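Subject: mismatched residue count in predicted assembly?

I count 412 residues in my input, but I want to confirm that the predicted structure covers every chain. Input:
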Amino acid sequence: MTKTYMINGGILNPESPQKCRFIKNGTLIFNEDGHILYCGQRKQSPLLGSVKIGAPADAIVIPGLIDCHTHLSQYYVRGRSGDTLLGWLKNHIFPAERKFKDPKHASRVSKKFYHRLLSNGITCAALYTNFKAGVEAAFAEGHRAGIRAVIGYTMMDRNVPSALKQEPSKTLDECRELFDNNHQKDGRLRFSINPRFAPSCTPGFMKALGYFAQQKDVCVQTHISENIQELAEVKKLFPRSKSYAEVYDRAGLLTPKTLLAHGIHLSRGERQLIKERACGMVHCPSANLFLHSGRFPLEQWYDYPRLALGSDVGAGPSFSMFDVMRDAYYVNMMPLSRLFYLATLGGAKTLGLEKSIGSLQAGKQADFSVIRLSDIHDPCSEELLYDLIFKWDQREIVQVYVGGRKVWPERE
Ligand code: GUN
Ligand code: ZN
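Triage response: the counts match. Full output below for your records.
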């Protein structure tokens, strides 16, 4: 008989953008392999004899949060203010990213980065690092930390300092090696192709990367239409393309496995093209506010099933997906159930992983956090979401699990 584990508490579970279910006296049961066997009312629980996991009496259990856009190599430069996108990249980001050529630096930062994610209840992240050494470190430390991640390195072959500029054929050789050695090796970590954005990539480079991504069926991660000066650059560099989205489409970079971050200034035709190609769209409200890039037109994406949230660390100053949800609410008023959905099940759908993560359901992976909220009077779905998202000083994340394994706090 395999061992089963049980945790008791209030369970907050996303069902749809409109509905977040709260089970007051709930129980979550999972097996040694990390699969959920039961999630529901305690008194209807079918399995006796499970090992009980210690949790505070007032514990709230939520699914692991999903951050669909973040930069590992920008860990130390969060909060560097005073510039909009292009100046911020040049003055703060490029100097930080070039340090990732050093494998020791890359390992140290990867470790810290994952620790921050897990301590914030984020069990899955789609991220950018830099250089081959950065990817190797991100896989090794990600494996150690027990997190789920989509990992790629920021690819650029023009308009960036020479220390960051890559030689396309060398990059493709590296991608083959990184894919073979790391992709899906432990079932939790995937390799992706991350062209930074059109202004820093030649058409030929992007085409080769698009071809590689389609051949290997891996995610593409990139930025699109974030800032007005960026759009002007794209127009100048790609005079033959009708739009920014078309630049990526011509390179074969718009696939159902593509994650496009920002998308603030897209035209109606571009939105239509992205939806036809079934790409994932990642809304990064904290970064959009921080860099004064503009407002994401959520109303244009309301019914789109592949919309997620991203912290966009380091343009986003906070790792917390609750802070990202709060900022998303400040720029577009919406029910809190929708925000919670975007950071859980919506994120999983955007990554194509909704069969295994995103909510607490029998058959899925036991990725969850145990949270304590102080001064709750009448726990119900609405009340809990108010407190989780807006009262950061009253919430405490006490334990985090990925695939049934405790990953935070780390064992001594
Ligand atoms: N556009 C191109 N690179 C970046 C980046 O690193 N961060 C953000 N926010 N936008 C970008
Ligand atoms: Zn970004």
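The longest helix spans residues 103-119. Marking this ticket as 'not a bug'.
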